[in-house]
Design a protein that fits this description.
globular; alpha/beta; 15% strand; TIM Barrel; eight-stranded parallel beta barrel
Length: 279
Amino acid sequence: MTYTTRRSALAASLGALCRTSSAASPLWRLSASSVLFRRLPVEGACEAIAKAGYSAVDFWPDTFECTHLNEIEKRLGPSGLRDLLARYQLKLSAFTAYRQASSARYGELLGQCGGGVMVRDSQYGQFPNRRQSMVDFLDSLKPELEAARKYGYSLAIENHGKALLETLESIRIFVELAGHSNLGIALAPYHLQAGGESVEDAIRIAGDKLIFVYGWQKAEKLNQLPGFGPCDFAFLKTLTEIGYTGYVNAFMHGDEPYDVMLNALTHSRKFLSRVAGPV
């Protein structure tokens, strides 16, 4: 079955106009996660991400041994964060709250900081009737989606191993059922690769519901980052194919000494730019 969306149809039309002259440039932008510098205060993480050449930052919470969202909440506040981002010429790409309680906790703050994307997980366990489980899960999101509508941000559910949102089929079910305009998918190539699923197919199925993408691959340590491990990140071309306009966010689990991470993140940014063309 072919999955066509308004955005992919528009992208195809624009692509046809551009092919006679030059290749179309991607519409997406580059971001990086603050958790890569979790041992630094939030100011240090922003400085490092800007120094590596990224245009935006995704902030992480203490559930991942990262204090950055907490610092924004308790020390900086919305105006302090805006000043910090302006200092390093960064945009706010996302808050990765992940758990439901954190999503509710940081929703108003995200809105006060200008909105964007709130990333969280789905559910874990066994799902003999995945469609019904998805119906129930989406129903449980109503309070969070009301907050997203009220405060002007989008809620992005990440695909994960052994989770409700995991396989291509579960992404297909999600897209069919998730009608709320403030609800979408945060795509983690790592988990798709771990399950032997096609990242390109996932992007095409997600279509307009794709609102955040991790620059992340199934590998160990620094090889998780773009430009290091086995993945050539050719799936980025599929993002351009569907007209994706969000962020590709460099990410890995684990951390390295500052200089090592800074150099690796800079290399990843250059690699992503070469793979996809101008960004």
